[in-house]
Amino acid sequence: MAHLGPGKAASSKEQAGLRYPSNGKSIYHRPLNRTKTAELSQSSFAYLFSEMVSYAQRRVTGIQELEKRLNLQGHPIGLKLLDLLLTREPPRTQTRPLTIIALLHFIKINLWTHLFGRQADRLEKSSNPDTPDEYMIVDNEPVVNAYISVPREMSQLNCAAFVAGIIEGVCDGAMFPARVTAHTVGGKEEGEMWPGKTVFLVKFQPEVLEREALIGKG
Amino acid sequence: MTPPPAHCILNFNKTVFALIIINKAGGLIYNRTFHEGGLNKISTNDYLVLAGTFHGVHAITARLNPLSPSTTTSHRTSISSTATAPAGGAASAVGGGGGMLTRPEAPSGLEVLETENFRMQCFTTLTGVKFLLFADTTQTNVDLAMRRVYDLYTDYVMKNPFYQLEMPVRCDMFDRKLGSYIREINNR
After folding, report:
1. Which in A77, A95, B53, B152 has the greatest CB count within 10 A?
2. What is the tens place of the pLDDT at every residue in A109-160?
3. Which residue of chain A comes nearest to B172, CA vs CA?
4. In what order do the strands lie in the sheet with A178-184?
């Protein structure tokens, strides 16, 4: 990095492989945004997301389809973020998560901190013995829903389906194929404390659990 | 006029009674009472009439408002320069005349109405939406409260993908945040 040779000969030699700076950090280790805290304007995000929801709302017939579209918008982001976040890990822990718990912790801590600047609020396993493949990530007030009031006739809708899509992308990318959905639970059990409380229900495919069981034995 | 009820006397000098939002066509899009007993109840139809009537009166008072001579002349010159010269020329002419200052301020219509028991403050946004805040005559810092209400409107109504412009405001989040803000003022 320090000295570039003069003329074409040197640069063609350099092109043979990726050049790494001496401290081992590439452009992938730094955010594009060079401000001190690397924060973005929440207002501009809110307007962008609002338009994304309006866009997804066009030509859909039902709420399920709308959520599906939001989910699809998030999915590629999750796939890419998995790679990016793992690259940014220190070299020793740069492996993808290998167990369900490790994966969910990665999502709860790394992914959430990267996207929203804080961890997710809780991680739970389904207590129902019939559904051992279901896990829950709880966010008390999702950033994407900060300014959104869902009309009464669409009360099942939760626009955090977009974030669910991101989670699904991360799970799929880490070879833990899953279906992730977002559900509003605020105002039911814990009263008015967190009216926007959202549960992301992660339902893994049967083969994931099968593999997990085999790893457990070994 | 009937005397205010007892609980109103207890904290009588710091109260915001009600909020009305009128869209740019003069339609009532939001109407909420915060303090029972501060104002007499009128029917929804009367509120609609009030909104429409105020809208008309506001428009006429805005026309009544004279432009000050200095702003009138600069207004004329800027118009003539845009009419004759291409865009570049107009920009330089405006820039030479002191930039933003040459543009006359939009005439604002009726801003405050006062009765024996309440004062009605009106705030018009740049897009023509009107906020009417009914408060006690001794309520201070109504401008500040109005500003905050406008902030809440821009956040929880305008950033909501399910809100359609010019239509009645039905946003839970807006109701909730507005309620807690006004409660905070009224209990201070």
Report:
1. B152
2. 999 999 999 999 999 999 999 999 999 999 999 999 999 999 999 989 999 9
3. A149
4. A122-125, A134-139, A198-204, A178-184
Using a CB-CB distance cutoff of 8 angstroms, which residues of chain B are in contact with residue A43?
159
Q: Answer yes or no: do B159 and A57 touch at CB < 8 A.
A: no
Matching residue, tokens 């007993």: B37
The reply to whether ipTM tops 0.90 is: no
Residues of chain B within CATH 3.30.450.70 domain(s) are 6-65+108-186
CA B48 – CA B108 distance, rounded (Å): 22
Say yes or no for a CB contact (<8 Å) between A149 and B159: no
What is the spatial distance between Cα B159 and Cα A47, in angstroms, rounded to a whole number? 6
> What are B8-47's pLDDT values in tens digits?
444 445 789 999 999 999 999 999 999 888 888 899 999 9
Closest partner residue to A147 among B155, B170, B176, by Cβ? B155
CA A131 to chain centre: 23
Domains, chain A, in order of start with CATH, read 64-217 (3.30.1380.20)
Let me know if domain B6-65+108-186 sits in CATH 3.30.450.70.
Answer: yes
Instruction: List, for residues B83-139, the tens digit of each pLDDT value.
Output: 443 444 344 444 444 555 666 666 788 999 999 989 999 999 989 999 999 999 988
Put simply, whether A154 touches B (Cβ < 8 Å) is yes
Give chain B's mean pLDDT.
80
Interface A–B counts its CB contacts (< 8 A) at 41
